[in-house]
Amino acid sequence: MFRVAVIGCGGMGATHARCYGSIPSAEVVGVMDQSAEAAGRLAESLCCRPYTDADAMLDETAPDVVDVCVPTPWHADYVVAAAGRKPRGIVVEKPMGRTVDDCERMIAACREVGVPLFPAQVLRFFPEFAAARDQVLAGAVGEVACVRTRRGGPFPRAWNNWYGKLEWSGGIALDLIIHDFDWLRWTFGEVERVYAKALAAGMSPGADAVEVTKDYALVTLRFASGVIGHVEGTWADPGGFKVSFEIAGKEGLLEYSFNQPASPPYLAALENPDPTRAGVAVPESPTATNPYQLELEHFLGCLDRGVEPDVTPDDGLEAVRIALAANESAATGKPVVLRA
Amino acid sequence: MGLRIGIMSMAHMHAYSYAAAINQLDEAEFVGIADHDPARAQECASRFGTRAFGSYADLLAADLDAVVIGSENVRHRELCEMAAAARKHVLCEKPLATTAEDGQAMVAACRASGIQLMTAFPCRFSPAMARLKAAVDGGTAGSVVAIRGTNRGRCPFGWFVDKALSGGGAVIDHTVHVTDLMRWLTGKEVVEVYAETSNRMFGAEFEDIGFLTLGFDGGVFATLDSSWSRPKSFPTWGDVTMNVTCEKGVLSLDMFAQNLVAYSDRTGGVSWIPWGSNIDLLMLRAFVEAVSNGRPVPVTGEDGLRAVEVALAAYRSAEAGQPVSV
Fold first, then answer.
1. What is the distance in angstroms between the Cα of A235 and the nearest Cα belonging to chain B?
2. B88: which of A188, A231, B54, B83 fits an S-S bond (Cβ 3.0–4.6 Å)?
3. Element (H, E) at A95
4. Predicted ipTM of the assembly
């Protein structure tokens, strides 16, 4: 049995905590948030103890696994503190860190004590993305020439508008489309060159002081293989959250879209309780196990067997590097070369 | 009697659609066709019920008001200058030219002769595009922030992949339409271009992948995928899309999304059968109306030239690995 402590009870902390609740080999022993109310609410639903102090939680519960889901700039401090207690493993929500230094600090602290660190790049556990990668590697479209991804929807409203503060979230490139950067790198190899335009990251001078209520980025990637990629990220689309991708190669094209198919696998179209107003249709694409649970089960399974997880700390760091290169390009107007 | 129109060269497949449009328009009269290839002129003349001329000079000497130029890209200038010298109005297939110098010469020749030069950008006449343009002009969504555009297609091969005739590959072929739409939509000029290109689809001399990033005067930014990245098995020729992020919402255009889906055991594949409005016909009608009434054509030679300059800048950027000014 893995006894898990969750640090951060916002959207992702709650998602991870509920997933552990569904995993037979895991048990949440404590949740911590600086807001007693947020911690209390999540703790009550999971029948565990709430904390507002991480040290107290780690001391009292001595967890096997620590899962860090606080806003990005505080990942490193909590991960380093958790590593000092030598748990069996640490999960850190994506993006792994706000800076390359943050990531390296976490990697060094965990390596020093031999604690496996798992950056939660969950997209690898989404079945449609995993299937697309399998297809590419099996040669379904032949040698790949280009790839395009699209992700986003409305602007996320959260604590202190932290997503909107470039200094905290790193903008949409670091917080949202890092999902795509990681999946692209996993599927198509290392990125050589990055060019980007972005709303928040493109604001100057003093870009770190930027605070926005919408963000948008268009990022072009050149991979070492010669594949050219394009990543669109939006926090400016009131039309709802949508994801799509296409991969074009010498012998074919692979397409995917979520929330845009003419016939979704499940659609609830309901009359409005107020008969003077139109009803609402909510499409869903359900799968047997949600990808967040698959991701956490994978990590716990690796800890059990003593093998390295499919997402390594270096993978987390490299995805951060690509996202920060996009921000740098947007700020300077120049392409950023990651490796010659 | 309608506007008397001839076609100079049927080398471009769009010329066939323009020929059919001329025949459909009551206000136009199809005088004839001349072509570098006399056999093609004969064949097309009989197909469209018009006359074949033995040379461009013979066509231009006929009783004629205007010409449509449908030649290979590099021949646009020569044919346009002939038409201008003969004082015939010109509707020229895109890209207007393959060099800025040629495009400037075409614009200057037509201006000097006092005839009108229109660039064939039929996408401007799409009813869906009209909705998008009206929404942006009406200001309900606020000002434009950024645009993600695509004009992806299957590779047309033939002379389109022979640089000596086409001036380039996918970038010169597919950059100009959506660049023109973006200029028209925003009322801004492209001032900076960055491009990543490759030839990974076909591994040949021409580029088949072109991912452009455009910076507009005033700060709007955009990307444009001009690749020949649709496989042979794709259900249609390609697409024209724009996802326009505005201050107060997103306006999305998928210009050719009005299709029946056909699953055929005869062809063994899936294909899309378009049923949307014929934008080539709408464009020809606009050309004919403007020229007939002595009003300015709705899309000018300068518009065509500006779009070509963006495509040429993309080649320079891809070469340099840096953004370049337009």
1. 10
2. B83
3. none
4. 0.88
